[in-house]
Specification:
Blueprint lengths: L4 E10 L2 E11 L4 E5 L6 H8 L7 E6 L2 E2 L10 E4 L11 H10 L4 H17 L15 H13 L5 E5 L7 H16 L3 E5 L3 H7 L2 E6 L2 E6 L1 H5 L4 E6 L2 H12 L4 E4 L6 E5 L6 H10 L4 E6 L4 H9 L7
Parallel strand pairs: 3-8, 3-9, 6-7, 7-8
Antiparallel strand pairs: 1-2, 1-4, 4-5, 9-10, 11-13, 11-14, 12-13
């Protein structure tokens, strides 16, 4: 089966500025793929090339097995929300969707999309606000209306640029669950976002962009890697420190945690695991109330990868 999105050597230059620089990217069918990067990393430029809105300087990009050129591609099978959606403020949410649909040229497609308006409004949680004027919508409601517009054509691929922008925590959860449901149903979703916790919670794979190139890619858990750090709660900190110093030798570091009394942060030496530490403490008569591996968050990984990269692109 062909990939949903495939870029090979994709580049976009504006004079001396490389907005996207030799990008190789593959998004498989049915994936929920998170596209991360700081402002100016090249994410939106990549999305615009995938949607045929701008033409690459070099390389190729395919969407749903078809080559994309400026204005040409399988866009009838793609739903997209790029940056903040624009609507007529004096019309209701429903009337806005109807206006966009009626601008189409294919009569059968127009009727099919009109018939889906109530369904998509319900899907994005706007059924009760469908007849309210958009000028009275919150920013989060306008974002959900944008997602509704992108869903009207029952797309095989959904491309979303910052879809949870402006949403409160409840709204973020609703959109996250909606996107997960769509992906589980077979829709490929390509989502650009700065909200790392949201991406980590819902995406199958994540790609990190910096200076126009992909600097890391993989499942969120894989990107966060393994850990050699543990957090331990004990009844006797001094005794635990002494025992761990003997157990791990000079390669093990033990520090009292500022999070509370009786807590130690331990960096393990080679060849020792959390189970070894726990067993040694128990044998020494030290009560272990909690022992938790400490892994880098996706945000930690992201900041490490893009540290110092702040050039606008």
């Amino acid at each position: 089966m062909t990939a949903a999105i495939r870029a090979v050597g994709l580049s976009k230059r504006y004079g001396e500025l490389a907005a996207v620089d030799g990008l190789d990217l593959t998004v498989e069918r049915g994936e929920l793929y998170g596209f991360l990067g700081p402002n100016g990393a090249g994410k939106t430029t990549t999305i615009r090339m995938a949607l045929g809105l701008i033409h690459p300087t070099g390389g190729t990009i395919e969407v749903l097995g078809s080559s994309v050129t400026a204005g040409h591609g399988p866009f009838e099978r793609v739903g997209a929300l790029v940056e903040e959606p624009a609507f007529w403020s004096y019309l209701s949410g429903r009337r806005n969707l109807e206006a966009f649909v009626r601008a189409g040229n294919d009569r059968a497609d127009v009727h099919a999309r009109l018939d889906r308006i109530d369904d998509v409004l319900h899907t994005v949680g706007l059924a009760d606000a469908a007849d309210k004027r958009v000028k009275h919508y919150s920013q989060g409601m306008r974002q959900r209306l944008g997602v509704a517009l992108a869903l009207l054509g029952e797309p095989d691929l959904l491309v979303l640029d910052e879809p949870t922008n402006g949403l409160d925590p409840s709204g973020m959860r609703e959109v996250r669950e909606l996107l997960r449901q769509l992906a589980d149903g077979g829709t490929t979703i390509f989502i650009s976002s700065h909200l790392l916790a949201e991406v980590e919670a819902m995406c199958d794979r994540v790609g990190v962009m910096a200076r126009g190139a992909l600097v890391a890619e993989g499942p969120p858990g894989t990107l966060r890697g393994t850990t050699d750090r543990i957090r331990i709660e004990v009844d006797d900190v001094a005794a635990a420190r002494n025992m761990l110093a003997r157990l791990g030798g000079p390669d093990m570091t033990v520090a009292t945690s500022p999070s509370g009394p009786g807590v130690l942060n331990v960096r393990l030496s080679d060849g020792l695991g959390a189970a070894d530490v726990n067993a040694a403490l128990v044998r020494g008569g030290i009560q272990v109330h909690a022992l938790e591996p400490q892994r880098d968050t996706l945000e930690d990984v992201f900041l490490h990868l893009v540290e110092g990269i702040d050039v606008p692109r």
